[in-house]
Amino acid sequence: MKDYAERDFRAWVKDKKIAVVGAGISNRPLISWLYQMNKDITVFDQMGDDNERLQIIKAEFVEAGLDLRWSTGDNYLDRLTGFDLVFRTPIMRPDHPALSKAAAEGAIITSEMSIFLSLCPAHVTGITGSDGKTTTTTLIGELYKAAGKKVWVGGNIGTPLLDKISLIEAEDEVVVELSSFQLFDLVPYVDTAVITNIFPNHLDIHTSYEEYILTKKNIFKAQSPFDRLVLNYADAKLRSFADQSRGEIVWFNKQDDYRGLKIWCQDPYIWKQRGRGALDPLLKTDDIVLPGRFNVDNYMAAWAAVDGRIPAAHLYEVATMFKGVPHRLELIRVHKDVRWYNSSIDSTPTRTVNTLRTLAEQGRPIILICGGRDKDLDYSEVGRTIAETVSHLIFCGENASLIKSAVKASGDAVDLPMYDASTYQEAVKYAASIAEAGSSVLLSPTGTSFDQFFNFEERGDAFRNLVLEL
Question: Could you tell me the pTM of the whole model?
Answer without folding.
Answer: 0.92
